[in-house]
Amino acid sequence: MEAFGRKETGEETVHGIARNQLRAFIERIERLEEEKKTLVDDIKDVYGEAKGMGFDTKILRKVISLRKQDQDERMEQEAILDTYLQALGMVPAAEEA
Amino acid sequence: MEAFGRKETGEETVHGIARNQLRAFIERIERLEEEKKTLVDDIKDVYGEAKGMGFDTKILRKVISLRKQDQDERMEQEAILDTYLQALGMVPAAEEA
Amino acid sequence: MEAFGRKETGEETVHGIARNQLRAFIERIERLEEEKKTLVDDIKDVYGEAKGMGFDTKILRKVISLRKQDQDERMEQEAILDTYLQALGMVPAAEEA
Amino acid sequence: MEAFGRKETGEETVHGIARNQLRAFIERIERLEEEKKTLVDDIKDVYGEAKGMGFDTKILRKVISLRKQDQDERMEQEAILDTYLQALGMVPAAEEA
């Protein structure tokens, strides 16, 4: 499985490492990481813009996160949470069924 | 600073929230998050490919991280680390200067 | 500010590092980290026990997190979230005031 | 497996939740979390103290992390890293064997 020691392929090696191959992998990863960083900055910018228009960015993040969840599952989780909070006296109890 | 309650602009509002504006922000963020996820997957794929060619991906990550650092700073940090490790007997001591 | 090179104190030094002092710091940190690890395991065990009694651990974590927040702030955040979700059609709209 | 609806045990329930049991779990977790927070602060304090004596805390963290690793494994990882860095021209090349 080792890709080292391929002097036979004409690839220059250092201590048996295919130098160009290593360099190519590193550069591909760095390029992708750079693109990712740009996107992360873009996302931050959009939140900044939304904030400038009066939206609450913490709540926006929560909305984004909720939209990834299945709606039925989310409703069910909310229902269980309410039950726990009521049992702990952390919210006004709904009427007993 | 609040962007709410702009019935005057013709924007449909719900409880004073500019519905279309909110939706636009959410959709922009979700699109960017989707692109980011694709890049994260791409990066994972390149590491996978490198691993398939015999490279050690943990070390590759270390190399990527070291390349982001200033070389002089890196050398200096390594030197301090060596001194600490020698003081703790964790590496063979170099000759005393 | 440097505490190195204190040969005058009788402390054995390696490359100017006070060996015993370094060792003492390392050992104190490792002992505390060990205690922390034990607590992290204990917490995991309690969640496991709660799960065994039929509680939903994900919701328990949410409850713990909510209890750290100020109740008024929490209620306000919930209200804003609801408004956003309604604007996006993600929950049945409450009656317009 | 559900521990709810145990009216028969005399435990007060809210919507079928054993209120005291829930409260007990929450309190045990909160107490452990509190102890954990104290330890995290203690660890931070020790690093602060070490820094005050002239030690480099970033390097101390690295030392702690290295001590958790197996020494042979660590040496081997360092050797592979060196080979990669040499192949990339990031360190002066050792003599070719």
From TrEMBL, chains A, B, C, D:
The keyword Coiled coil applies. Keywords: Coiled coil. Residues 15-49 form a coiled coil. Residues 18-89 form the GapR-like DNA-binding domain. It holds the Pfam family GapR_DNA-bd. InterPro entries: GapR-like (IPR018753), GapR-like_DNA-bd (IPR046367). The keyword Coiled coil applies. Belongs to the UPF0335 family. NCBIfam families: PRK13694.1. This is UPF0335 protein RB548_04275.
